[in-house]
Amino acid sequence: xxxxxxxxxxxxxxxxxxxxxxxxxxxxxxxxxxxxxxxxxxxxxxxxxxxxxxxxxxxxxxxxxxxxxxxxxxxxxxxxxxxxxxxxxxxxxxxxxxxx
Length: 100
Description:
Layout lengths: L2 E3 L1 H11 L8 E10 L2 E9 L5 E5 L5 E5 L8 E6 L5 E5 L10
Parallel strand pairs: 1-6, 2-5
Antiparallel strand pairs: 2-3, 4-5, 6-7
């Protein structure tokens, strides 16, 4: 499984992961709902279970993904400052390039 995190997103995520209450926890990407051939994604700070796989990224942030869930393979986490500040999780490998 594969996950990419942009430079801006990694910077913002690391601030959250470095908080004392999140010690030992990782970023989880999950599906909030899916329809047709794509999904909508959410994020949480969590601990992996036996139903998960932990994926290392090139930004030094490990990500928890549900095992064998094809819609999670290839997700990308971005952080944008405009038009409004916030995270965006998409999966370009599955044809999901953002809001529709």
